[in-house]
Amino acid sequence: MPPVTSKNKLDLLSTTKAEMDIFIQSHGWKPYRAEQILRWIYQRGVTQIDHMSDLSIHDRTYLASIATINRPTITSVLQSQDGTTKFLIQLHDGATIETILIPERDRRTVCLSTQIGCSLDCKFCLTAKLGLKRNMNAGEIIGQYLSIQSYLAKTYKKPPRLTNVVMMGMGEPLANIDPVRNAIQNMIHGRCGLGLSPRRITVSTAGIPNKFYDILKLDVNLAISLNASTNEQRRALMPAANRLCSLSELLDVCRTLPLPHRRRFTFEYVLLRRVNDSPEDAVRLARSLRGIPCMVNLIPFNEIPGSSYAKPDETTVRTFQNILIQQNIDTYLRKSKGPDVLGACGQLGTNTRESSCSMPKN
Ligand code: SAH
User: Fold this and answer.
1) pTM of the predicted model, to two decimals?
2) Residues 6+ apart with CB under 8 A from 251
């Protein structure tokens, strides 16, 4: 069942269509009510039950007495010089998370958080240093999207449309699989959800293999953060993830998992100077990816305060990329987005409290 709030009310934003059907039935309402209510939330973006104007006043009052829409609130907006925007978002219990909006030529991608802090301990990642504060519920996950959409609608005359979702913000999505799954279901539901194509949704994991299929079943993209070319490297860089599964075991799982038609895995590889960025690393990586339908995203390390890791120079990065390309592996170099607001991969989690930018006036 979806979360019930402190006032013992059902959180409609965390409720899937199937759960809504049961809820509606248990209150003796006609079945069509489920879609009617969800459409208000996801397609018309209401934040108050009172605004659901095709429900009678009596029904609205009754619904408001047993349910609520727990939409998170944007408290600050930090604009990067490259167009990336970092949103600080407050949840109902006062916890703050970070969500990033990345505009690119023909797309606008929102990078969602799935946990407050993170349950893993990847050594190069700032969020990991927070530890896990708590898991986020489905409403808090999809609520980030809705809050940013509303912000854009209020801020721009011609508000840009959000086109893609990546779950690559704070946290490990597969360590919080049920809310992540429910949020995705509401994102892709055509009649009463956001109506996003599953192909436009990517879930990124540090590697919890027994949950891979749960994600693939939803027909969305799965990105796996490898970050190493040997088991030893991965053990040192991602100790908690590695305890679940070594690099070689992880790749074996990828070899055997049934992928949806014409899909491939995305592998992410954070390049760390003199740690995993040598030509030998590239050759080893290419060899171990043989036989797996995949593409590789190379992410030069984004600097984080106090870290002993550094970013490789450009020539090293190009050499690494060229070796993979020569081995017929589609390889993309991910540009750092929003580093000046600490909004890039692995930089989420520090200036949550001391940020000084505030919401622009509407
Ligand atoms: N826990 C998930 C999603 C969050 S991290 C995962 O591990 O995939 C999203 C991506 O950022 C991962 O590929 C991770 O390896 C990468 N990352 C983490 N810290 C980074 C840093 N400081 N610089 C560059 N990429 C980083």
Assistant:
1) 0.94
2) 288, 289, 292
Give the C-alpha separation, 179 to 36, whole Å.
22
The CA 116 to ligand 1 mean position distance, Å, reads 15
Give the residue carrying structure tokens 């429910």. Answer: 182
**Could you report the per-residue pLDDT of 227-258, keeping only the tens digit for each?**
999 999 999 999 999 999 999 999 999 999 98
pLDDT, mean of residues 21-25: 95
Ligand 1 neighbours, Cβ below 6 Å, are 124-125, 168, 172, 204-206, 225, 227, 268, 270, 299, 301-302, 304, 345-346
CATH class of 73-352: alpha beta
166 neighbors 230 (Cβ within 8 angstroms): no
Contacts of 158 (CB under 8 A, 6+ apart): none
Q: Which residue has the tokens 């986020």?
A: 136
Instruction: Write the CB contacts of 297 (distance below 8 Å, at least 6 apart in sequence).
Output: 223, 266, 267, 268, 269, 331, 332, 334
User: Can 345 be counted among the known catalytic residues?
Assistant: yes
SS (H, E, C) 215-235: HHCCCCEEEEECCCCCHHHHH
* Domain ranges in the chain with CATH number 3.20.20.70: 73-352
Q: CATH class for domain 10-68?
A: mainly alpha
The number of residues in the chain equals 362
Distance from C-alpha of 19 to C-alpha of 186, rounded to nearest angstrom: 11
> Tens digit of pLDDT for each residue in 327-340?
999 999 988 777 77
